[in-house]
Amino acid sequence: MPVVRGKNIEILFSASAIARRSLELAKDIAARDYKDLLVISILKGSFIFAADLIRAMHDAGISPEVEFIFISSYGAGTTAGEVRVLRDIDNDVTGRDILLIDDILESGNTLKYTRDLMLSRGASNVDIAVLLDKRMRRKADIEPDFVGFDCPDHFVVGYGMDVAHAFRELPFVGIVKGDA
Ligand code: IMP
Ligand code: MG
Q: Is residue 179 part of a domain?
């Protein structure tokens, strides 16, 4: 078991498994025939997944425009979770096909808020790609269009995801198991 910051980390999804799955997702995305696709990476958690997925999309023959939105959710996992935009995209999304990329879909509050925001601005279609889906935690009425892996009901870290600002740099997704 890898030890990082003095903690044992159990690997749930390895770097190679994620890389293989990203290629498959990119092919599924390419098969949708989006027009003039705008990809929006939801910060902070999606930055590594988005970076790998858009390069896999390039290999699958898609040339998207790429944007970033910084969303914070307080009380994530609850129906009352308050979602705010901390840094917005720069683009006019009117009439655009959009693909939102996030690390993990849990209550769904973050992605429902972000999708509704883009639709209210006139986007013609807003689809969702997530690396992980914790479907047993869903509160909002939202389903992802592209999912890397179903995620067990554990708090996970790595590949962009943090606990208290730590572990984003791990090349795999894992569970913190306690002191090494
Ligand atoms: P939701 O709004 O409840 O769907 O929460 C989604 C956001 O919460 C994700 O974008 C992550 O940033 C964060 N999150 C949810 N579960 C986990 C986890 O297990 N590890 C790290 N971050 C998580
Ligand atoms: Mg997030």
A: no
Report the residue count for the chain: 180
Mean pLDDT across 9-34: 97
Instruction: Compute the distance from residue 177 Cα to the ligand 1 centre, in Å.
Output: 19
Res. 11: pLDDT tops 90 = yes
Sequence-ordered list of residues with C-beta below 8 angstroms from that of 23, at least 6 positions apart, any chain: 56, 59, 60
Name the DSSP letter for residue 136: G
**180 within domain boundaries:** no
Whether pTM > 0.90 for this model: the answer is yes
pLDDT in tens, 116-136: 999 999 999 999 999 999 999
**Tokens found for residue 40:** 């929006």
Does 98 map to a domain? yes
Q: Ligand 2 centroid vs 104 CA: distance in angstroms?
A: 7
Assigned domain for 68 exists: yes
Which bound ligand lies closest to the C-alpha atom of 162?
Answer: 1
Indicate which atom in ligand 1 lies nearest the CA of residue 102: 10
Q: Which atom of ligand 1 is nearest to the CA of 103?
A: 10
Q: Which structural domain range is residue 122 located in?
A: 3-74+81-174
Number of domains in the chain: 1
What is the C-alpha separation between 95 and 61, in angstroms, rounded?
A: 22
Site of tokens 């009901």 = 153
